[in-house]
Structures are given as structure tokens and as C-alpha cells.
Amino acid sequence: MSHQPEGTQEPEESTESGAQQQQPPQPEQQQEQQHQQPQPAQETQAPQATQSTLAPTDYYQYVLASLPLMTREGSVLDQDALRRCLELSSSYLTTDTTTAPERGMQTWFTGFDRLADVVVALHGRGQLEVATMSAASRACSECWSVAGSWRELAPCREGVRKIATRLKRLLDDNGKTYKGEAIYAP
Fold first, then answer.
1. Is 20 in contact with 14 (CB distance < 8 Å)?
2. For residues 100 and 150, what is the distance between their CA atoms, to the nearest angstrom?
3. Position 81 confidence tier, pLDDT thresholds 50, 70, 90
4. What's phi and psi for 171, nearest 5 deg?
5. Per-residue confidence band for 24, with pLDDT thresholds at 50, 70 and 90
6. Model-level pTM?
7. Please, what sign has the CA dihedral across residues 42, 46, 48, 52?
């Protein structure tokens, strides 16, 4: 059955031998073929790690790609977008270290550190919003918790500590507010 509008006809293509090319199977045929395919034998041992066809996540590359998109009207930065990047830091900590164990900690830390640089720069310009400082504080707290949840991620806590120490210097003298307003504190 052809899915062409009435009155039109698909041209028949032939191969060098004169036989028609085989049309792709219809959905009903695909389902039948899927049910007929042999299933692999069940393994009694733990499955071996296989090379994933998906690329590993990379927080640093995500941050690098996002930063130019945050700039609007000259040198003003879209802090809503910056906050979204900060909110993803703990998720990227998990995925970077899971999908690329050899380099995941470094890509995550470099991305998070770059965002901290942006926060510090905005503070230096007098443009840092309280909500952004609060989002940075929350990101540090969440990353600290994630890094403490798995023994393999324990070294990431040192990275969180470095970033949190830098950001804490931006707070008011009481260490609990920014520009007189309360920020997220665990």
C-alpha cells in the first residue's frame, strides 16, 4: 500500500541486476521482526562495562557554551541564565563523574569554578544580584551533599570548599547576608 497522494506514483528504481529495491518494513512488520529476534543469554556475573554511544557530559563545555548567551545589551549579564547554570552544578557533578570517570571531576570543577569567577566579577562591578549570590550558595551546598554521598566523589568536596571560601568573602560582615538580605544557608 502506497502512502502517496492519489494520482501520483512512486518511481520504481532498479538495481543493476534489474530487481526492485526492497522497501523498508512497515511498522507492523518491524514489531514482528523485533519479537522474532533471538534474545541474548542471561549472564550470571555482573555485566561488563561497555563503551556508551552517548558522549559524556562536560559541565565546563556547557558553561563555556552558555556564557556568551548570557550577555545582553552590551556588558550586562543575564543573571537568570547564570542562576540556571549554577542550579545544574550538582547534577553535572553526578553525570560528569559517572559518564567520564577519568576526567569528570576536572570538567565539573572547572565549569563550577568558571561560574564562581563570573559571580566574583559581577560583585566587583556592583552588579551581582542577591538571588544570584543565593543560588551560588545553594549550589555549593548541594554539591557538598552530592560529593559526600559517594566515596569516589569525596575529592570533589575540596573543590566545593575552595569555591565556597571565595564566595563567602563577598558576603556582608555577618557572613549570612548579601547587601543586607538573607541568602540561602544550609
1. yes
2. 16
3. very high
4. -70, 165
5. very low
6. 0.71
7. positive
